């Protein structure tokens, strides 16, 4: 669906990002073919007037869960990709912890075909690192890469054995593919459901220490240096991890890292009762950890924002912190939350946020996105940055309503999302009713 290449004229576009200008954007067959003033197009070409709005390159999220096939009561490629479009994203990369895990050539080929057929945005795919995510048997990296996966990840499960991780890195390196790690030592995590510390003690809940993440990250960075793989660290949550990545980058290791909106905005002290909307993996950490991941994102140690959009059913997120599933949705709240809390408060500029949510993730993974320029794909977001609204799951396309941000007042409402020149979201669709 995202492959329908359309013609379109956007008038009076105030473009922000790596390119900054105000003018018209002409789109022909899904590609930006002219930028200028008073551009003309053939009669009948659809036209959008973006006066008063802000236009930027479509957002890129390298870490989403679409649950399709197998858990389609939580999300589908159709609903997840529409949620992405509603959030201003035009390219996402889906994790392979679906049912069954696409760990054979036919299964991954079917997944790629399904993504292309059913997604309204560009949906790329992470292949699993090992059969079934939990085994030590590597998938066929060369065959999977040839079929078109972006890279390899067992997200949801840490690779427990160093020998397996080292072999996986060597295999990914051999086919020039990145490896994205869900970093978690299961012996340290034990039965933890939130961050270990005074808040967990107060609530009487079992905790998982920072070292659940950082000790395995130290191992992985050592192995990444030895193998030369592009190692991507998923959802970094601790101050120790930020320090390790800063050190590895200084030493020339090919490492990139992501941080989620929730780890930037929330801490364990925000968990005041038994509310599973605050339960995710890795967990919300301490104030010092949150300040460290913010500093890491600002100084480039953490390269990019990724949502880790993890939709669940009401039933799976019901119950208690002990029993509920890990994970929260993020696609439809990420930009407005970060724009409101970081850009409007002056901690970050809008171009910096767009870089971390579009241009940098695109360039890190060689994705054709992140710019508004002639010859480039017409993947664009038109946003109203001036009208406040309240986060309301009734407006969402995602089947998942599991979020701790419901009820927050934010700025940054998507007016239109354009993928290859096609209007895949327009505000009237969902909100202007
Ligand atoms: N983040 C989560 O808490 N859950 C993710 C898995 C993951 O990202 O590790 C999920 O698939 O639900
Ligand atoms: Zn994960
Ligand atoms: Zn994830």
From TrEMBL:
Identify the CDD domains for this entry: DHOase_IIa (cd01317)
A biological-process GO annotation: purine nucleobase catabolic process
What EC designation does it have? 3.5.2.3
Read off the InterPro entries from this record. Amidohydro_3, DHOase, DHOase/Allantoinase_Hydrolase, DHOase_cat, Dihydroorotase_CS, Metal-dep_hydrolase_composite, Metal_Hydrolase
| Gene3D superfamilies xrefs | Metal-dependent hydrolases, Urease, subunit C, domain 1
Q: Where is the active site?
A: 308
- Cofactor(s) demanded: Zn(2+)
Keyword list (alphabetical) reads:
Hydrolase, Metal-binding, Pyrimidine biosynthesis, Zinc
Residue span, Amidohydrolase domain: 299-425
For this UniProt entry, what's an example GO CC term? cytoplasm
UniProt domain Dihydroorotase catalytic: residue ranges: 52-240
Which protein family is it in?
Answer: Belongs to the metallo-dependent hydrolases superfamily. DHOase family. Class I DHOase subfamily.
Q: Could you identify this protein by its name?
A: Dihydroorotase
Q: Which organism is it from?
A: Schleiferilactobacillus shenzhenensis LY-73
